[in-house]
Amino acid sequence: EVYTSIQDLTAVFSLERRVVSALSNYVDDMEAKLLRIRKYLREYEQVSAEGTVTDEVTMERLAGNPVHAFHLMKRLTVDWRHLEEQSKVDPWMDVINAMRGVGGGGVRLPNEEDLQGAAQALVRLHDVYNLNTTQLARGNVWGVQSAAELTAQDCLYMGKHSFNLGLYQRAVQWFEEAYALAGLEGNATVTQDQVNVFLDTAIKALDDNPYGQLEIGQQENFSTRTNLQEEPSPSHRLATVLTPREDAANFHALCRGQQLLSDAYVATLKCFYDWRGDDYLRLMPARVERHHWNPELLTFHQVISDNEILRLQQLAAPALSRAMVQGPQGKGNTVSNTRTSKVGWLDDSQDPLVARLSARAARLTGLSTSVSNDDAEMLQVANYGIGGHYNPHHDYLLVDKTEEELNNIHPRELVLGDRIATFMFYLSDVTRGGATAFPRLGTAVWPSKGSAAFWYNLKRSGKGSLATLHGACPVVHGSKWVSNKWIRERGQFLKRTCGLSPDE
Ligand SMILES: O=C(O)CCC(=O)C(=O)O
Ligand SMILES: [Fe+2]
To answer: Among 446, 470, 475, 476, which residue has the most ligand 1 atoms within 8 Å of its CB, making it the best to mutate?
Structure first.
């Protein structure tokens, strides 16, 4: 799919530019040819203006004129040869080649699936960010205005897509927009009558399923349970388990930029310098921002430079492919709409930069990140396209599995142990959207180029930390790049020891 990463979308844009330029050359070429043909015809017409050429007498008179005879010979030899030659080359092949991406770095044309994916991304953005349909159709996406407007036909397509997803409320909104636009356009792209048929169907479906298609985040308020976090101390109690509906409502609210923590709690969250128990960092302390106390959620600022980011993206670009998620019951890995991005993996041995970033993560976390020792996974680089997202999930792979499910997991994973912690570099700022939201903590980390987020997915006891549920909010504008270093459990047994209580 080309819609799942900015990297590929950018390539498709430049492919289209090459196609358009080939088309424009084609038009120039065809015009030149037509001109030559017209010239041929005109010359003939000039001759025939002297009389009707079909009449034998005129023809004999023309043939008897040496200049006419010369012109006749020239027309049927040189001129004709030119006409014949020019029709032999088919400039349409250049257009076809441009479309096929010949000479363009192997970019492939988008297909039906890509169109569906792009429409799905719009539906998702609409939903999560509660965007206004009319504004969206007029090119205003979350306050950013562009010339990219939707026609009545586009809105009809969006309505059909929403309908097929069972989002009847949304479908009605899109069809209503299509109806209004068809009126404004004078039924140019689609007629109001055509839209009406769909509108009626969608209204009927909505009447039949009045509760079935609640769009979470639109009708629901976020859970008040996270507001339990009144007590601003590291030991405050919090709700670690919410219902899926509450999780989704909180996630959407956080994505939209709402703060779900109390003011008193937020007041305890300070930025500070920290040497993290590392002698090197004693000389140059880390700039740490606290987002949550327990479980602890931190970001380290200015931990990867712009040059390093550029280099990392270059290293990862050839390796990017559609991200996978664990299959049902831990079986295999599959592509899924719950995670739309492209990822690539880089080994420490591949480039000194990768090894350096691993070492940096080790200093900042106090954990061992050696890939060759099986202490951590390779570095993952991820690029999200527009609407790219990752639904709320836990990063751990094993602790939530049953005995039976563990049988489906590769034995190597069991040797490495679970993903004890996540260290994630932000490789870009994102114009709109793209936060990493923690619905059970009631807070979100906003991408800031050069920083890195860090949290433990497991408690000291080795149990899964349910509260670390998190997801990537859809990207609305701009591009989002992150890089994950997942640190495994086995290598840390001396670095992170048990606490006194099994709940720690
Ligand atoms: O991209 C993000 O903000 C989060 C990504 C994430 O949670 C993951 O890759 O596991
Ligand atoms: Fe994650």
So the answer is: 470
DSSP 8-state symbol, 464: B
Our answer on whether the CB atom of 436 is closer than 6 Å to any ligand 1 atom is yes
254 lines ligand 1 (CB under 6 A): no
Tokens of 422: 């996540």
Q: From ligand 1's centre to the CA of 394, what distance in Å? A: 10
483 lines ligand 1 (CB under 6 A): no
Asked whether 472 lines ligand 1 (CB < 6 A), one says yes
Atom of ligand 1 nearest to the CA of 434: 3
CA dist list (Å): 11 to 104, 283, 320, 328, 381: 9, 43, 13, 33, 18
- The topology (CATH level 3) of 112-208 is 1.25.40
Which string of DSSP letters, residue by residue, matches 150-206?
A: --HHHHHHHHHHHHHTT-HHHHHHHHHHHHHHHHHHTSSSS-HHHHHHHHHHHHHHH
**Which numbered atom of ligand 1 lies nearest the CA of 473?**
3
395 lines ligand 1 (CB under 6 A): yes
Of 242, 409, 381, nearest in space to 310 by CA: 381
pLDDT in tens, the chain (504 residues): 777 788 788 888 888 898 999 999 999 999 988 998 898 888 888 877 766 666 787 778 878 888 888 888 888 898 888 888 888 888 888 888 888 877 666 677 788 888 888 888 888 888 889 888 999 899 898 888 888 899 999 999 999 999 988 889 999 999 999 999 999 999 999 999 999 999 999 999 999 886 554 443 343 333 434 433 433 433 334 566 788 889 999 999 999 999 999 999 999 999 999 999 898 999 999 999 999 999 999 999 999 999 999 999 999 998 888 888 888 777 778 888 888 889 999 999 999 999 999 999 999 999 999 999 999 999 999 999 888 999 999 999 999 998 888 988 888 888 899 999 999 999 999 999 999 999 999 999 999 999 999 999 999 988 999 999 999 999 999 889 999 999 999 888 778 877 777 777
In the chain, what are the domain boundaries?
6-99, 112-208, 298-492
Residue nearest to atom 5 of ligand 1 (CA): 472
Cis? peptide before 110, omega within 30° of 0:
no
What is the CATH superfamily name and number for domain 298-492? q2cbj1_9rhob like domain (2.60.120.620)
Q: Is the CB of 383 under 6 A from ligand 1?
A: no
ipTM value for the complex: 0.99
How distant, in Å, are the alpha carbons of 358, 417, 492 from that of 406? 29, 12, 22
CA-nearest residue, atom 9 of ligand 1: 484
From CA 477, how far away is CA 432, in angstroms rounded?
A: 5
Please indicate whether residue 339, judged by its CB atom, sits closer than 6 Å to ligand 1. no
How many angstroms separate the alpha carbon of residue 375 from the centre of ligand 1? 20
